[in-house]
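User: Show me sequence and structure for the first protein, then do the same for the second.

Assistant: Starting with the first protein.
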Amino acid sequence: MNSSHFKLLQLFIALICGWFLFTSNSYASQISAPLSQSVSQSNQSLTPIKVQINWNHQYQFAGFYAAIKNGYYQQAGLDVSIRDWKPGVSVADEVVSGNADFGVGKGRMIVDYAQGKPLKLIMASFQFSPLVLLAHEPVNDLSEFSGKSVMYDGGFQIESLLSKANAEVSNSIKVLKATGNIQDFVDKEVDFYAAYGTNEPSRLKQKGVPFYILDPKTYGVQTYGDFLVTSKKMAELRPGLVKAFKDASIKGWQYAITHQEDTVDFIMQNYSVVKSRDDMLAEAKATTQYVKTGTVPIGSIHAAKLLASAATARELKMINQAELDNLNINDFIFDDSKSLFTPEELEYLKANPVIKLASDRNWAPLEFEDPKSGFSGISADYFKLFEKKLGVQFQPVYLDSWDNVLKEAKRGELDVFSCAVETPERSQYMRFTEPYLSFPMALASKDMISFADKYSQLEGYTIAVVKGYWTEELMATQYPGVKLLKVDGVNEGLSAVLDGRADGYLGNLAVINYTLHKYGLEGLRIVGQFSERFELAIGVQKDNPILFSVIQKTLKLISQEQRDEIFNRWVRFELVNKLNPKQLLQIFIPVFVIVLSLLLLLLVYAYQKRQQKAYINEIHELSFASEINVKTLKILWSSASFAKLSGYTQEEMVGMPYLNLSWKSLEDEQIHRIYKLLTSGHSWNGEMHAKTKAGGEYWVELTLTPNKNLFGKVTTVLATRTDITDKKRIELLSITDELTGLYNRRHYNEVIERELRRAKREHYSLSLAMLDIDFFKMVNDSYGHPFGDQVLKDIAKQLTLSFNRGNDFVFRVGGEEFIVISSFESESKFVEHLHCLLESVQGLQIENKKAPFKVITISIGGLYLEADKELTEEDILKYLDQELYLAKENGRNRLEMHSFSEE
């Protein structure tokens, strides 16, 4: 065979593979049962609904007004009225008491729920809160709240910010209840005024009133905005009504953000608005970014983000630890799926937390018992989705054979057939849902049967079938001329064909294909398919109509995408038809094959290039990617997702120095280490603390991957990220000392181990110090423990000011004992820095009259670990403790450094 013929053969084979891949995928999509949902329209009279808002009528509530304007609520059978807000109104109390059916409240709703108010969270109008404080003067430090007045109406963000400020002020903060009148701020009746960034700032600009914005997000306070809630009672008794209200409200928001002027005019014509049309239009423009954020669906809420808000509330003592521990976030969130069920059906699910399944332990990939994973297969994946939607457990019951499972189900001992064909016999005691899976009947043989597409062709042959399967009932009742070999399982049936006990095995195509590959049963092939199909459904005991209704409804909730995903996870058809030579000659004419294969190859190549580009773009968006110029360290391009995360536009990101995005300035030494690693062609991975354009903070897990040109030189770096902000917030609670805000002893044990490994890997020095407050017992004895606690906070603050670089760590490891981990380029510079720390602490002039220096001082034991010097964690603590002891013995208020040259 010459090379040209060989290439033609290659093209022919490529075409065959491509054709079968295409047809198998198409075929797979055909046999996965389609999902059809029907929506019934009610002709009942409209149900009156009252909605309590938490501020004056304005564009903040535009989605609800738009749903009224366009009749979305009326179409859902609801007559909605929006109740005016008045100072002092508690949205949570109005909803719980029944004065209002729904309420729009601030982020504090999670605190109300944690403290026991029976609320259900339906959606969040704003994906992040626009709530800010307006000030007459710029604020550089929270201590500037001392003695000032703040007017607000219970916003979680404001309460959190004030809780932080209370720890910093010398005079208490005056809190005033909001009146809803911006004139209070204009007339300087208050120092700080809670406002929405979408609203009051633009109004003040038009009035020419100077102001400054203090955003809680700058201080790490963040949550959703404008929670839509209802009472637990309403959600449980009328879930369908709640779901209908939610859907209509989301539809209203979709209209409002695309028809801003129409919505503004409707609000102004029908409600008492306290601002101008221009103000309303400005608010509308600003509001859109909070409601519609990228590809996140309007109204979305995620349990992790809510949990992070709850953790912040605990940190700020808005809730206690017990309330946080008992918090069930998933129970707080309204479950849409329950809206389809009647009160009787919901009561049934509560009373029956475990439902028994009649399952086949040896029918892979449809359902089987996996030694490690338990109930597995296509059917199992469906019932795992059912469990999530219904809150019950489906417990598979296995017996030694499917035939015995059938007998148990017939006696009523098992509630549900998880995956079965509806037959006349089974229909006597089971009621079946619509089929959710459909597979061809197929015949597997060795060489006794060449091809068959009619059952009559099997007469005279011995065909293996599983006892109790539909195939046994079908063949026994309709084709008595076929000899049946009844077996206990598919594997046994196929083995019977291999060892000659049977001429063929008749069964489900997907099961045959899966079993052949799993057990390596070589020598068997599919030699026939038949018009009958395995129409697989879920069967429920006939005397249990409530459960049947629940199962049927839940099955309809499974989307086509979910069905396809489950199907493709388990089923891979390689060849489903046996084609005879005549058919092959009719289909594959050599000249046609060559021409078509060339065209297909070109099309596939072009398609793959487009798909590759689209895939890469999608990956870049999912990973918050950007590219950095190695020489200038400036951003060359940014994904839309990373620009949004950072608060900039993509255009603003281009040309920006990448290091400007860091929360703290990175040390030159650290930058140099990473730069050296990247330019040598190695990747770098680590956590980074970053800041947004507005001054907020976020955390990412950052991966830097160098890109080389044709000459092998690194020219650019691809940066990809995972947003770990919520994770870091929750982690921070477990690694932070509650009194001082410093890291605790537990975190020290983690960090020292990590830093020692990194120092060894990246070959750099470590600088460590152990500090102790001198005569601290005298402080507590003379001035009391509250004063002692304040001393600890003051020292912690001074330590944070002294060690505030990106690679500095400060820990409180005991009562008045602290440890610092840092890095300095030389021991002399570290010593100089520690002496400055001694002076700065003494310079605080914190009174301690019974001590020798009459003021608070500290003693320090230091250790400078050169890059080539390796010590264990135990050795480090030994040296630090030894030097701290010497500092105390030699008079205190001094530093003692360990020198390895003396050893």
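Switching to the second protein now.
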Amino acid sequence: MKISHLVVKTIAAVCLLLASVSAFSSAAPSLVLSEKDITALQGAGGGLLGQSLAQNKRVADMALGEGIIVPWPEDAGGGYTHEQHKRNYKAMYAAGLQYQLSGDKAYSDYVVEMLIAYAEMYPKLGLHPEKKEQTPGKLFWQSLNEAVWLVYTVQAYDFIAETLSEGQNQSILNDLLYPVADYLSIGQPQTFDKIHNHGTWAVAAVGMVGYATNREDYVAQALTGLNRSGESGFYQQLDKLFSPDGYYTEGPYYQRYALLPFVWFAKAIDTNEPDENIFGYRDGILLKAIRTTIELSYNGLFIPINDAIKDKGIKTEELVQALAIAYDITSDRSLSDVARQQERVSLSAGGVALSNIIARDQVIPYPYQSKVYSDGADGDQGGLALMRSGDNETGSLVVAKNTSQGMGHGHFDRLGWQFYDNGQEVVTDYGAARYLNVEAKYGGHYLRENDTWAKQTVAHNAVVVDQASQFGADLMLANARPAEQVAFESSKVADISIGRLNTAYQGVMLTRVLALVKPELANPFVIDVVTIESDKVHQYDLPFHFSGQIIDHNLTHYKAFDTWKVMGESSGYQHMLLRSEGKSAVSNNRLTWLLDDRFYSYTFGHSVQAEVSGKTLFFQLGANDPDHNLRREQGLLRRLKSTNAVFYSVVEPHGEYNGTHEYVRDSSSKVKNLEFQASKLNSKLIVDMGEFGKYILIMTTKSSGSGPYQATVVRDINE
């Protein structure tokens, strides 16, 4: 089937004619999977493919055993009816594919019965009783879920369409597929034409119905927007939601979620209109997005910035499907390394090929690298810098977040950072305050603490000025003012990122230099220098969130409190309990903690225009949390009151704790001294690691008051 979206037929009579045409497909499917995929699957087996085929058959057989269960919609996310309708679209897909593979009409009959049951119910539905205010659905509480349902369901229809009678087909089209597609498009233009992951799912669903049923009007709407102007629709989604590096503006968690409708709809376009060369569009932006999704992970889990649930990783269904599509196009054998870790493959020609590579032991490692992923459609909205040493399972990774806001799912944490090492998240990000699909936790919604804590600046490793979040936690203001990725350098000695933000607080410029230093004889360590410039005195708080058990510290005038006090009234501070505090010396303050079997030390100091003593406050989450929604995490907060100021520090992994064999080695920090030197046009942080040498971070400033714009790390050759 060849449908050109460039020729749009809008005459009502033509649309009615199209709606009445029998939409029987050939025996081979015509959307994401094609005859090539079915042939490859029928001639293959064993390995991961055999396991994946067996799993699909188990899902289909279990569905046939349970019969047709189509409950009247009642529950929000996580409730019985919500979850049953999710099970139904997955069961229809599995059974439809099983019919394609086996020809057994028991599977196609199940799909037909399920579709007829929905066709009988859908015209009777009003808005869902638990509807979301802005984007209500009918089958589901929000139309996003309805679009996901349709993306799967139309493929199930496509698998079995040849078995339908004329009457069955017309009922399914006119009472189900077309009404759902209409509701998601003309029924909700505010979502369908939105440049957002909800819009992506909607256009994919409607466009795939168009291809499956010869509805050119649906295809045109999906590709170029409801008014066919090209100002919205799938091409605009591709143009606006990804940076030139394939970074999705909402961050890795939502990049993963949005990836499936992007690659599945693109595959449907490629199947039906190969001359469009959709996977070559915008310099291969979708293939870049797939690779970027892989690379924004550590030890199998996605980097949890913005509204991220922290247990999502590379085994997710979205990336399994995308990986096979990418391999089918590129034949890049390193993708098999990711498939091996996923422990299953897509049921497609690409999945067959990946399974064969793994079975033949021909896997080559995926090439994770230090890199900046630019943000924004034109790559001018800052960037996410990843600095790596070693492999992606146990090596070191520093994440510097110098990005845009990330729309409504973004957090107010520009110039924040994270550190991973030894397979663990060491310097942490909270992610989202949400228990997905756990009905007892606000129906699986984002919790109110997502706004009051998780999104606030103090919940991250970013500077807080005057105990207020960046941009006053104003989303519209934050969306308009991205951070700046000033510089990035990767070398044998160190990877370095410089980020800047001068619009988060009036009259305050923030610059952060992060370096992952790679000594030859010691573990990689992190240098962090935050420069703050202002004409007025402010309170500067620098939170440091870490995971592990505190071993010791060297703070003076230290006191612990019998009664823990709440640290503030708003901006996240209302959730922080002050456990203890001490005075911070100008330099060489140290905290050591243990995580898993490795020790970590945080050595830190500060520099100010006048001699100002600092404080270090230890806190734990849990205040003003009556429903116990927050995790009981910990951190410390460094506090200064000054005009200009510099926070500097080193985070250093060292030693080993072995509980099994009862030994401990190198539990003390190797950092002997930190010395910060500053002049008008440059500054230095000298890290003395004793027998392992001195490493000097040299930062250059263009002129007074502009912050560092260039940095390098050298080993002192004069020691």
